[in-house]
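REQUEST FORM: STRUCTURE PREDICTION
Request ID: SP-0412
Submitted by: Lab K.M.
Chain count: 1
Length (residues): 194
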Amino acid sequence: KVLGRELVAHHTFGNPVVIGLPRGGVLVAEAVAEALHAPLDVIVTRKITLPAAPEFAVGAIDPDGITTVADGYTSKMPRFVVKEAFERSAAEALAELRRRDLLYRSTSHPQNFDRRDVVIVDDGIATGLTVASAARFARRRGAGRVIVAAPVASARATADLKQVADLVVTLTADEQFFAVSLYYSLFGQVTDDE
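STATUS: Completed
RESULT:
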């Protein structure tokens, strides 16, 4: 709710639609959508990891199957990653993304944002890869402006996201960022049903 109040108090939006990034971001996005009196939707993106480091994101993939990687949020594969391993991990991430997209959106209709302000909300931003992937997807689908919002983010991701978003709003942008969960008193896993 605090993030929603911040957005309403300091920014103006043209026909906004609020996008939650599943799963935790949807809970925060619901409060933001309420504050902005805007519809709520999701863009399902998935981080791409490698078997040797399943928690370390080397990229993200969007519903169109387009990858975003850490090197300037481009589609170019990182130099330190073996191409076959990256492609295998991206294919697995895309399969899970498609399952979730069908489950969460319950429609096969492609999203079209028709020059609207798209407010992409997550519960926190560590690397920014999944958020950047969603922002690039929203632009390809006709967003007028792309706004990224989260209660907490790493200072580096906040700066980097300005490459793909028109506006980045966080309540806390921490230079010493370690994990999103450290900024919440309760941070359980959000289920598909939730």
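NOTES: The helical segments are 2-10, 24-36, 83-105, 129-140, 155-161.
Reviewed by: T.R.
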